[in-house]
Amino acid sequence: MSEFLAQIEPIKQAAVAEMRAASDLAALDQVRVTFLGANGRFTALLKQLGALPKEAKPAAGKALNEAKAELERVLAEQRASLEIRATLPQEPTDFTLPGRHRSLGRLHPLTQATEDIVRIFRRLGFVVADGPEIEDEYHCFDALNTPADHPARDTQDTFYLADSENPGATAGKRWLLRTHTSSVQIRVMKRQPPPVRIIVPGRVYRRDNADATHNPTFHQIEGLYVDRSVTVGDLKGTVEFVFRELLGADVRVRFRPHYFSYTEPSYEIDFSSALVRKMGKEWLEIAGCGMVHPQVFENVGYDPEIWTGWAFGFGIERIAMIRYAIGDIRQFYQNDLRFLEQF
Ligand code: DAH
After folding, report:
1. Each residue of 250-275: pLDDT tens digit?
2. Cα 276 to Cα 325: distance, rounded to the nearest angstrom
3. Are 228 and 203 in contact (CB under 8 A)?
4. CB within 8 A of 71, min separation 6: which ones?
5. What pTM value is reported for the model?
6. Residue range 133-158, pLDDT digits in tens
7. Is the minimum distance from the CB of 311 to ligand 1 under 6 angstroms?
8. Which atom, in ligand 1's list, is nearest to the CA of 179?
9. What is the distance between the alpha carbons of residues 270 and 282, in angstroms, rounded to a whole number?
10. Which of 23, 145, 167, 266 has the least C-beta neighbours within 10 A?
11. pLDDT tens, 196-212?
12. CB of 32 closer than 6 angstroms to any ligand 1 atom
């Protein structure tokens, strides 16, 4: 009888040692089968219990139950720890590191301003048009009635491409980076008959040195409205409506006579608001505009006796700077998140 009892402890210890050594759940299950399965080594002891003499049974039964309880406890403990280990990353991980969070992007302030302007014009029935940034002198200047000796054409003001940089170049046709979006007026009018109601947001280039209010590339929005009997009153009403929508109901707009070769009469638009006064000024110049010059209509094949129209152009940066009280235009192009995250 003590012979039987003596077998229990070594088998139990062997089982415990193998369970503790199991390095994954499959290995642990293998150990369980070896000892506690239907043909397991510990199960074999249990099966012998019935054959023991009656007086030996209580002590043997107690010893077997205790051993079995311990095996099951170790098994459960080891399984739990292997299960946790199975869910851990294979590579060592520092759980104290900050998490990786995916931050949401948002639109650049210039894009936001552009989209707002476009939205306001859409409500007035305007559609967006665009044209190439690499332009020729004809669309940028000639067709806009700009005299050959106008300073805007000067190589000091305009970026010209070398002919070798543009395979489409023909003799006498100079290619350039457009200095304004007005070139798109010509492209659209040559393409379609009147009436026209377009706005053209886009990038433009000038040989300016960068400072707080200048950058060699910036953005403009051009507007062009052609129909019968269009007047300066239409122009003024439209401009007033748009700037009030954009910059607040307290905005006042003023037209000052000016010169542009493609409009007659021409004006500069100044506007005034609480924000402008805060900047220490009464009026801020914001755009150029005027009634489309008859010569421009001739150039695109519209009959100036029938068609009338107005056009304007203004800088998007300037609008965004006023709107968000930004003091330096260069901040728009530096991709500094500390700046961009504020919009
Ligand atoms: N193109 C002018 C500029 O870049 C702005 C402008 C003035 C556009 C008058 C127009 C206009 O359409 O009629 O300064």
Report:
1. 899 999 999 999 999 999 999 898 87
2. 10
3. no
4. 12, 15, 16, 19, 35, 36, 42
5. 0.71
6. 999 999 999 999 998 888 888 878 89
7. yes
8. 4
9. 9
10. 167
11. 999 999 999 999 999 99
12. no
